[in-house]
Each structure stands twice: as C-alpha cells, then as structure tokens.
Amino acid sequence: MADQRVALRRIRGMIALVAGCSAFVLFPLSESAAAARTAPVITTEPINTTVPPGGTATFSAAASGQPLPTVQWQVRLPGGSTFGGIAGATTMTLTLTSVTSAMSGNRYRAVFRNRAGSAYTSAALLTVAVPTSPAITKEPSNVAVPDGSTVTFNAAASGVPAPTVQWQQRPAGALGFSPVPGATSPSLTLLGVTTSMSGTSYEAVFTNSVASATTNTATLTVEVLDHIALSPSTVTVAPNVSQSFTAEGYGASGDDLGSVASSTTLSISPDGTCSATSCSATATGSHTVTGTDGSVSSTATLTVSPPDHLVLSPANATVGPSGTVAFSAEAYDAANNQLGDVTASSTFAISPAGTCNGSICGGTAQTGTYTVSAADGMATGTATLTVSNQKFVELIFSRTEVTATDGGCNADDTNIARLDTTVAPYLQSLGLTATGSIETGPTLPAAFWCAHYGLTMATSWNVAKQLAADGWTFVSHSKDYPASTWSSLTLAQKWDETCGSAQVIDANGLPGGDDMFLWPDNKFDSQALTSFVEPCFGTNRVDGGGITSAGQLTTPPYQQSVRGLAGGSCNVSGSSCATVPGAAFRYRTPSQIISAIQTLQPGQVLSLQVYLTVTGASPAYTTNTDRWDCTSPDPNYHWTNDTERYCWTDLQTVLQYLVNSGLTITQPGVVNAAFGRTGYSDQAIPRPS
Predict the structure, then answer these.
(1) How far is residue 165's CA from residue 306's CA, in Å, rounded to a whole number?
(2) How far is 438 from 505, CA to CA, in rounded Å?
(3) 333, 406, 409, 580: most buried by Cβ count inside 10 Å?
(4) pLDDT below 50 — which residues of the chain?
(5) Residues 6+ positions from 314 with CB-CB distance below 8 Å
C-alpha cells in the first residue's frame, strides 16, 4: 500500500511538472514524421493584371508542401528593389479594391512558408489604365473540313477593362447574325459539323463598359470527303524503320479539307506493320501503304532498302573518366540518302576498352581517345569518344549589365566596377574572355537601357560589339523576358522569345547567340523548350549548383546549371551585417566559389554567373535603396542587399585563382562542341504563322 502511495505521488508530480512546463516537448517528432516534411513548391503563379482606376484587381497563387504552408503577399513599388509584406494578405487570393493610377507598376508576389522551407512566386505586374474600347487582336479564319469533323474558331481582343465575348452565327442565306448559345470564350468549338452547316458565317463580339468591337466573319465550309492524299507519296527507309505519314482530305470540287490523319487507318502490303500514323517493314523491296477513311482510300509507296553506312551522333564527344554518352545511329544508302534512325536495331561497341549498354557508351578511367562503332546488318559507322581530365569553367555576365543607376534610370558609376572600362580589360589582361547574355527586345544601338527594376544599365549593341572584338560571345536571355507570361504567349511569340532572339544577336554581328538560352527568372516553358529551345540552342540555363555533367550536356533537354556570384548578408554570425534588410541570401564568398572549382571533376562544367560588380561602400544615393560594403579585408564581412551585386575585389580573387590553377574560362559554344552537342542552330525552326 505504501509503495502504491509513493507511485501515485510520483505520477502527480510528473503531471504537475508537465503542467508548469508547457514550453517543453515531451514527445519528439518521430523520424518518419520529420521525413514527411516537404518544403513548399509553387503550383499556381499569379499573372499580370490590367484594371481601370477604381476597379478591382485579383491575384491568385498556390503551393504544395507538408505541413500545409502559410502564405503572405508582398508588394514592390515601381523603382524599388525590395518587397514588403501587405498587412492581412494571408490567403491564396489577393484582392485589391478601388485601385488607383499610383498603384500602376506595382508587382505582387506570394511567399509560402512551412517548417521545411519557403518558396516565392514570380512577381505579377499590376497595370492601372484608363478604360479603352475593345480592339481586335486576333481574327477568326475561314475553315474547310469534311463532314463529321470538329472545328474551332479563335479570336481575341484587348481593352480596359478586359472585354467579354459572345460568338454569333449566320446560316447561309440568312439576313442577320444571332448569338451562339453558351459561346462566351475566345474559342468557339463545333463538334461533328454537317454539310447542312456549310456556308455558315461566324463572328465574335467583344464588349466592355466602354464599347463593343466585332471581328471579321469566318465562313465554315463542310463537304463530303471525296479523296485523300498520303504524304510522303514515295519514301525509302531501312528495314524496321518506322515512317510516319500524313493524310490530307479533299472535296469533289478539289477544296483542301485539311488533315484527316486522325480518321485515316493505315495498312501495308505485302508485309509489314502499321500503328497509328506510321508503318514499317522488314523485307527489302517495294511495299504499298494504304490509307482508308470510310469509303475513301489512297496509297503511297514505301521502299525498304538495306543501309550502306551509318552516321553516329554525336560524332565527337568528351567525358570525364568513366563518363558515358548516349549515341544515336542514322542509316544512309550508297547515294547518301537518309533511311531513318536505326539506333534501336544497331549494336554498339567501344574500343580499345570500355563498355556499351545499348547505345550508351563509356570509356575506362584511363584518359585517351576511344572509337565507338555501331553495326546494323552490314552497315557500320563510328564516332570518337575522348576521355579527358579537362575541367570546364564558364563565366556569364547576366544581361551584360554595364553600370548602375541612381534608382531613377540615370547612369551612376559611383563605386561601380564598370563592365566595359574595368572588368573586361582586367579579364583581357589575364588572357580570359567571357560571355554576356542579352535581352534583345529593349537593347538599343548606342544607349544603355534601364534593367533590373530600374537599378542597372544593360549593354547597348555598340558596347557588345566592342566586347566581341576582344573575344566575348553573347547568348540569348529572351526578347522581352516573359518570366511569368509564357502560358499566355502564342507559338509565334514563343519563337520570338527563343530562336528569334538569337537571330537578332546574329543580325547584330555578335557570335554565340544560339549557344545557350537563359530562362528568364528561371521560369521555363515546356512547349518552348521542346519546340524551339532544344533545336535552336546548344544548352539552356537553369539556376542551381552550377556544376553540369557530361550526361546532362549530351541528352535532352540539354540543361546547364549556373551558380550565381550573388550578394546577401555577410557570413559573420552576430555581426550587424549578418541580417541586412532586404537581403534574401548569404553573400557568396570567393572561398566558396574556389571550393566549387576545386571539387570540379574531369568532364564537368562549372558555370559562374555574374551581374554587376561594386567597390568600396555604397554611395549615398537619394533615390536608390541599394546598399553594399566591400571595404573589409575579410570577405566574410562583405555584404550587399541586392542579390545581383558582387564585390569586384572578390571576383578578382576568383579569376586570379583560375589562372594560377591552370584553368581558364571556356565559352558555351566550345563546351557544347567538346561534349558533341552540335547540329543546333537558331535557323533550325522557322517562325510559326
């Protein structure tokens, strides 16, 4: 009984202790629960918004994460360099009522945080504009199709406030238009059109509080399918190479009714197989491909010819010891006519040593030159694989920023190491060259343009040409920096931002335009990537650790990581500069960059990205909120409140280390060639209509 009383007193004492020490955690988070934590990942970005004075602007954002992250909206005023929190804006939708003209140019972003980390959305622009009448920006086009097809008409219009739309129709022979029920989006889709609808005209009426605007009329022509044509009509391929065909439909009058590939079934004889829109055969000789759409059919000739020789790609590649490269094999006949990709049916080997796993081949740890061979039947081809101890370092000056501004887009060189008069000559004195990126849209012939929220002056074409004369190359940083608007761009506009921007660099006589594409604000678009960036550019830049392997350089999507020489709070805990207002990161010291260079392995690339270099301590600007301090002999005390500022003396330390260690700066085009990444061209894809 006494023992029970003692136990009871102990239990009561423990309960009292817990009650009085509520700050203590009695049960630590289990390893499985801790592992379940995931940092926020942005799933919905806010988009640019235009509203009239007195109107309501709405921005929305979302993020995943475990635990569910909280949200805080922030705003940056025009000309400002930092964001500030908006009181009470802690939901995923930010609603601004009764906006004023003074708010035009504000940028809004959401910050999502949980115990595992934080994530920032892109900054969406608010434009407050006086109401304007709708203006048609895209007209619908006439359409001719076979009966039973699905048809889509598209239209668009600008205006403040954004106009609504109503589609209207006028059947053949009718006197006037009438609304199409429920057709209130910019696209009008008609399912299963019939010949009775032929001759119907359609138009879109855009309306806002100011006025209305009507598009041109577009006429629908619907005919019974009379005949089809397969393309190519004749083609020669290697055995088992899959050849794709298109099918074009025509009416009895000869009108082109568009593609009918989706409703056409392919077959092949005397042997072979067809799947969807492609056919192949094993036996050499002539084969007939038949396309059938209902009661209508057409034929094409597929000739199977054994290849005479193979061409491997890449023809030359470089890797570090034990690195690998994925090769492809294209078949050709004796007249050098292309017979198709035979990678899957080819056998790959490497000599004098090394291994191939399918078409992926690599040498041993021993440096030297290896021959990769492939055989498909009697046809063979070779490529050269070099195993090298060489390490590559790139130096990219983002936007080729020349000097600073006073915060009002007036150039100010105070305590700035200007790119053209200080940095470039120093590089030249060390025997080094660099690469500048160019945002082509705002770049002017002779004058600098105001970049980075009005805080820097970016290069002119004339200065870029002066740097090119000293060995610099220049790569594309897009045309108009569509960081948060890729999804709203047409295919032609995405071409303008990518392949087209590189062509502008070419047109100004600068080398290297298609060697690398820098994704604006690290926001990439999958359609732009596959349609334009991969064929037009050697590599494309993403922010990250800065080190890229041979495998990443030689396989799609050919993305290359860069490491920014970035500003931030200083690296001395407890000092006043350890928490610099507006600084999102820690200042990256020369020793940290040099450590990355030292850990670089053979066959790897380290890409360093620099913005604007500064000296001394920040001048007493009256309108510019940028601040820095590079005065201490200890780089750990260096700091800047702008990520895109870096101390010039620290960059000199990094450059001097490169020279002393026997490394040099290699430009993107040279790196691409070293790893066999060739064949890209900004002329590869014509501008879509």
Answers:
(1) 58
(2) 8
(3) 580
(4) 1-34
(5) 325, 327, 383, 554, 675, 676, 677, 678
Q: Are the beta carbons of 282 and 216 closer than 8 angstroms?
A: no
- Burial of residue 161 (number of CB atoms within 10 Å: 0-12, 13-18, 19+): middle
Name 318's bridge partners.
386
3 by Cβ neighbours in 10 Å (0-12 / 13-18 / 19+) ranks as: exposed
HSE-up of residue 254 (Cα within 13 Å, Cβ side): 0
| Per-residue pLDDT tens digits for 444-468 | 999 999 988 788 999 999 999 999 9
Dist. CA 155–CA 517, nearest whole Å:
31
Strands 178-179 and 164-170: antiparallel
- H-helix or E-strand spanning residue 516: strand 516-518
Going through 377-434 in order, the beta strands assigned E by DSSP cover 379-387, 392-397, 401-405, 411-412, 416-417
CA 123 to chain centroid, in Å, comes to 17
CA distance 653 to 638: 14
A 10 A CB-CB count for 527 gives: 13
The pLDDT tens digits of the residues spanning 374-402 come to 999 999 999 999 888 788 999 999 999 99
Question: Taking the CB of residue 1, how many other CB atoms lie within 10 A of it?
Answer: 5
In order of start, what are the domains of the chain with their CATH numbers?
40-128 (2.60.40.10), 132-223 (2.60.40.10), 227-304 (2.60.40.1080), 309-387 (2.60.40.10), 392-565+586-614+642-674 (3.20.20.370)
pLDDT value at residue 80: 65
Measured CA to CA, the distance from residue 478 to residue 494 in angstroms comes to 9
Token pair for 631: 């005065």
- CA end-to-end span of the chain: 94
